[in-house]
Amino acid sequence: MRNIRLTIAYQGTNYAGWQVQPNQPSVQGTIEAALNTLTGESIRIHGAGRTDAGVHAIGQVAHFSTSASIPPDRFAAALNSELPSDVIIRESSEVPDGFHARYSAVRKQYRFLIDTNALTPPWLRDLVWRVPGPIDEQALCAGAQKLVGRYDFSAFESKSSPEEDSCRTIFEIDVTRQPITLGWQYDHQVLAIAITADGFLYNMVRSIVGTLVQVAQGRWTADDVTRILNSRDRSQAGATAPPQGLTLMWVDYAGADQMSQHLQSCEAAQ
Fold first, then answer.
1. Helices and strands in the chain: count of H runs, count of E runs
2. Can you spell out the DSSP letters for 84-115?
3. Phi, psi of 168 (to 5 degrees)
4. Residue 232: left (phi > 0), alpha (psi -120 to 50), or beta?
5. So what's the pLDDT on residue 257?
6. Beta-carbon neighbour count of residue 239 at 10 Å?
């Protein structure tokens, strides 16, 4: 058996999320069906993050075990020939047996897009949260910096498990304006909030964004963000931002990536 790693991009609009759901389309189930067609095997793939319904990905990572004879780097092209247009495999490779897409990860980045313009291009509506009106970006940035570090993020977790530790480390929150140049007005820009952390609780990013928007609209201050964080009470934070603005950008494996590169070098030398 070989352990194969996939890097995946998808638009989540038409899916109930990453994870297989009864009687509903999922990204995981769609890829597993394509793998079954290719290999004849019943394969379960394991993703780095269980994105919710409507959430997108540019750099989702998954792994699976197979005895199929398809070369590791050819799985991407073979799968893409079977997948719908809103799911693509960017890359495939063989990784060590110990690699796990979720548990081997050391950092992830999610990005949330907010459109504050009066009008949003129709093709952009499934990719952004429309928040028309004035936004104080300096206040938003000040509030965001209150969350950088290692904390208990229970106040930004929609549901919790008694067995799960709610402490996470946010390494960086980057707030920028990004231009959209798809035949629309030249000055159309969206607000991008990119959060890099060692892991995320359920709905953590969307809860943080919903809270920061309250700060940016003048309803709360940066000090209120600290108050909410310390409360560990979800009811104190802002509403959960809608899913369509959220994208899983990348997953970092550090040492696991180095092991994979070593394995590929050894194979190439044989």
1. 6, 10
2. -TTEEEEEEEEE-TT--TTTT--EEEEEEEEE
3. -140, 160
4. left
5. 54
6. 12
DSSP line for 125-159? TTTSEE--S---HHHHHHHHHTT-EEEE-GGG-SS
Question: b/e per residue, 24-58, with b = 16+ CB within 10 A?
Answer: eebbbbbbbebbeebbeeebebebbbebbbbbbbe
Give the mean pLDDT per block of 10 residues along the chain (270 residues).
97 97 96 98 97 98 97 98 98 97 97 93 92 93 98 90 83 93 70 97 97 98 98 97 98 70 48
Q: Domains plus CATH for the chain? A: 2-104 (3.30.70.580), 107-249 (3.30.70.660)
Could you give the CA distance from residue 8 to residue 10 in angstroms, rounded to a whole number? 7
- State yes or no: is 152 an active-site residue: no
Q: Residue 182: what pLDDT?
A: 61
pLDDT for res 266? 43
Residue 242: both structure tokens together? 């809608």
Q: What is the pLDDT of residue 163?
A: 61
Q: CA-to-CA distance for 248 and 99, rounded, in angstroms? A: 20
Polymer length in residues for the chain: 270
Q: Which of 52, 86, 198, 257 is catalytic?
A: 52
Residue 110 β-bridge partners: 195, 248
What's the pLDDT at 34?
A: 98
- Report yes or no: 142 and 216 within 8 Å, Cβ to Cβ: no
